Amino acid sequence: MTEQSQDRPAVHSKGVLAFYEWLEALGSAIIIAMILFTFILRVNEVKGDSMLPNYTEGTRVIVQAIGYQPAVGDVVVIDATHTNLDEFVIKRVIATEGQTVDFDEFGTVCVDGQPLDESAYLDPSVGTYSYDISFPQTVPEGCVFVLGDNRGYSTDSRSSDLGMVDARYVIGKVQFAFGGN
Predict the structure, then answer these.
(1) What is the chain's alpha carbon radius of gyration, rounded to the nearest angstrom?
(2) Is the link from the previous residue into 70 a cis peptide, with omega within 30 of 0?
(3) 91 is catalytic
(4) pLDDT tens across 131-175, in order?
(5) Catalytic residue (one of 13, 28, 47, 91)
(6) What is the pTM of this model?
(7) 5, 50, 134, 154: which one is catalytic?
(8) Given the DSSP bridges, would you call strands 109-111 and 114-115 parallel, antiparallel or unpaired?
(9) How far is CA 66 from CA 63, 71, 88, 157, in A?
(10) What tens digit of pLDDT does each residue of 40-99 get?
(11) What sign does the CA torsion over 111, 116, 122, 126 have?
(12) Which catalytic residues are annotated (predicted)?
């Protein structure tokens, strides 16, 4: 055997070794992505107009699903499959347990007697609709009060179809949005 032919198997085995290392890295990345998107992050799609103008129909949202406690102002995905809505919905947390929610004669949300500043996300030209729950309401322990940003077209905690949301049904907080119409 010549010296050149002895080098060939070594080069070939280095190529095979590199391929297996690449395959192992790819497999590890796939497993990590599966764990990440199964237990830690979730992807949901916005359906309907209840969160306009901030989230449009078809927008996909990445949701932090683990280690999250609902907080006022957060946009969350809720598993409403056990309600009359029978779907996953996206809403904004307005109040948490123990807080009292009311609406003034102009539809302004008041939490614990104070008007809520919603100028950062609410279109002032959008009206409200009649609701079938009387106010003021105090949010029960372990629950949240949620509203859609497009108040005139949102079925939310003002309606008995959804009502106060048990925090166990809050899937998580929206961290990132992409796509949509």
Answers:
(1) 25
(2) no
(3) yes
(4) 888 899 999 999 999 999 988 888 999 998 999 999 999 999 999
(5) 91
(6) 0.79
(7) 50
(8) antiparallel
(9) 9, 14, 17, 24
(10) 778 888 998 899 889 999 999 989 888 889 999 999 999 988 887 778 999 999 999 999
(11) positive
(12) 50, 91
